[in-house]
Write a structure and sequence with these properties.
Radius of gyration of chain A: 16 Å
Helix content of chain B: 25-40%
Strand order of the largest sheet of chain A: 4-3-2-1-5-6-7
Strand order of the largest sheet of chain B: 4-3-2-5-6
Radius of gyration of chain B: 21 Å
Strand content of chain A: 15-25%
Order of helices and strands of chain A: EHHHEHEHEHEEEHH
Distance between the termini of chain A: 22 Å
Oligomer: heterodimer
Helix content of chain A: 25-40%
Number of helices of chain A: 8
Shape of chain B: globular
Distance between the termini of chain B: 42 Å
Chain lengths: ~170, ~425
């Protein structure tokens, strides 16, 4: 899987209340959630982001609430993947589970400026900055998580397992 | 090498003799929970699995608490979908009423979450039940849906951070202050992916209500779980309620801790976490001139009977400042009933506070106390993120119930000492 898009750069501790404020959680509609994506830090974000763009952030991205509405709103807003120095654990799970790729790579984040064109290869974890020509390698996924991603998330993965009555490969 | 209780619980639920931190395992879960917001997504994901029934109707609960009673039509529709699904599938369902309230107060009260169990909840504060010696962790709606269908979940075995608390507590320093100071010291990702293990004489001396407060906020340090040893107090709490048999696990003497912290709490003061991170912790005295617009006493962190007693102790015979909205919400039906029986509700109403229906209330900016531009709230909740309780320019200051009550009276951030009551008089 490859992604190419412009970078949106944010700082540390971008929490899920900032990604999608609690007052909008009376819906599960991805389009409605996307309309308020990142409202806590940049209310114009949903209008500026283009399909395929890449979210880049510092430490502890997605901290706070377990609301899966956060990765759903990012994906529905057009974000193809998230690169951060580190992720809060529930957000990390939720993103993988719904099929939004997330990559942990502090060095890449340090070297990315807002608007940089990035190319990401999920299988190798390579993050290429087209502006600077630099390439970084994200922390590799364990085999099981790569299978989850390749299956398209936890639901398709579990469906396939249930259909075959197969145990997990964990 | 010995194992921690977190490792032992996970190993037992994975059918293994031992597990190592970092290992990915699949576990059998004992209980799955979701609330009105996260269940709304979970039932959609469940439908995609094409499974008819949940794995065990007695081990799946929806607790409607975030938008309850519904503040608008959309929230009402969302709650209807969740309620109808719960009734159709025959799972446990709580929504207000005699036994309902906030998920993290209801489930322990009802004896549905027990020591030695693995509990997952589609709510980040599911870590609260670690106070009962359970391995309990927050997940998203998709994880919850899969666990509802299969009774199973993948997880990474966390390493353990041990936190040992000793010394003498100063007046008005509560469980809330202990956890705020802890997060202030280790940071909002200080325990990322880890299990926190809270121990030492200070923890042992806390009531169960206080222990729940501490475990509740483990997530604010990034932790996967926040556990405590099971002792006589735990068993006294659990035994009369338990809906199932349970097992008690203890850390081995040679258990491995990735981080081992020792806190002498003797110098700690009542704490305030200022915007916009729970780790921005300051002694209350440093902020004493800051005017406020709202006080909220309640939530899964501080909505239990002991919290209400503490607030009532400060508010008894006092008046809420005329420029402050003071909202007090007992965390569950039984807590409300108890507060009523003890005369606490009388004290609150007489002081000029409004008492709300058991729910999450204004904590996540949903309703019943949403903040306008620039408004400031002293809150006994767990998060002070940008826009958490309303407008992005509003501000939330996290504090214990005594500080919140004192602030409500004086219209500014205040120490309980400023209200003419002797700390020793409170024996709650």
């Amino acid at each position: 899987m490859r992604f190419r898009g412009r970078a949106w750069v944010f700082g540390d501790n971008i929490d899920t209340d900032v990604i999608i404020p609690g007052r909008y959680l009376n819906t599960t509609d991805p389009k409605e959630l996307a309309a308020h994506c990142m409202e806590g830090v940049d209310p114009e974000f949903p209008r500026k982001v283009q399909p395929g763009d890449i979210m880049v952030a510092g430490r502890n991205f997605g901290s706070g609430s377990s609301r899966e509405h956060a990765p759903i709103s990012l994906r529905a807003a057009g974000i193809s993947c998230v690169i951060a120095k580190s992720f809060a654990r529930i957000f990390f799970r939720n993103a993988i589970n719904i099929g939004l790729p997330v990559l942990e790579c502090a060095e890449a984040v340090e070297a990315i400026a807002p608007g940089d064109e990035l190319e990401v290869r999920l299988d190798t974890g390579e993050i290429h900055n087209c502006r600077t020509g630099q390439t970084f390698r994200a922390k590799p996924y364990p085999r099981f998580m790569l299978e989850l991603i390749q299956a398209g998330g936890l639901i398709p993965y579990t469906r396939a397992r249930l259909a075959k009555s197969q145990p997990s490969t964990v | 090498m010995g194992m921690t209780m977190a490792e032992k619980i996970i190993a037992a639920h994975a059918g293994l003799d031992r597990v190592e931190p970092g290992e990915l395992v699949e576990v059998q879960v004992d209980f799955v929970m979701a609330n009105d917001i996260t269940a709304a997504l979970a039932i959609q994901e469940f439908a995609k699995l094409e499974v008819e029934e949940v794995f065990d109707r007695e081990r799946v609960a929806f607790v409607a608490d975030h938008f309850v009673p519904p503040p608008n039509i959309k929230a009402a529709e969302q709650c209807m979908a969740v309620r109808n699904w719960a009734r159709r599938k025959g799972i446990l369902y709580f929504e207000g009423g005699r036994d309902g309230g906030i998920e993290h107060i209801v489930l322990p009260e009802q004896g549905l979450v027990l020591p030695g169990e693995i509990i997952i909840g589609a709510d980040s504060h599911t870590c609260t039940y670690g106070a009962l010696g359970a391995f309990s962790t927050g997940v998203g709606s998709t994880d919850a849906a899969v666990a509802m269908a299969t009774g199973r979940l993948w997880l990474k075995v966390p390493s353990t951070m041990r936190l040992y608390y000793h010394g003498t507590l100063r007046p008005w320093v509560t469980a809330k202050d202990l956890i705020l100071h802890t997060i202030g010291r280790i940071g909002v990702d200080g325990a990322l992916y880890m299990a926190m293990f809270f121990t030492g004489p200070i923890i042992q001396a806390l009531s169960m209500d206080g222990r729940f407060t501490i475990a509740n906020m483990a997530i604010e340090a990034g932790a996967k779980a926040g556990l405590m040893e099971v002792d006589e107090k735990t068993l006294d709490y659990v035994r009369p309620r338990a809906k199932r048999p349970f097992t008690v696990y203890k850390d081995d003497p040679d258990a491995r801790y990735e981080i081992d912290l020792d806190f002498d709490v003797s110098e700690w003061e009542p704490a305030i976490a200022v915007p916009h991170l729970p780790s921005n912790v300051r002694p209350v005295g440093e902020l004493a001139d800051l005017r406020i617009d709202q006080v909220f006493i309640g939530s899964c962190t501080n909505g239990r009977i002991e919290d209400l007693r503490l607030a009532a102790h400060i508010l008894r015979g006092q008046r809420v400042h005329p420029e402050v909205r003071c909202i007090i919400i007992p965390g569950s039906g039984p807590t409300y009933r108890q507060a009523l029986d003890e005369g606490l509700i009388d004290i609150f109403v007489e002081a000029g506070a409004v008492v709300g229906l058991p729910s999450c209330g204004p904590c996540m900016g949903g309703y019943s106390g949403v903040l306008g531009p620039g408004e400031r709230c002293v809150s006994t909740t767990n998060r002070n993120f940008v826009g958490r309780m309303g407008h992005p320019t509003s501000e939330v200051y996290l504090a214990n119930p005594a500080v919140a009550a004192a602030s409500a009276i004086l219209g500014r951030i205040a120490s309980p000492e400023e209200i003419q009551i002797r700390a020793e008089a409170f024996a709650g």
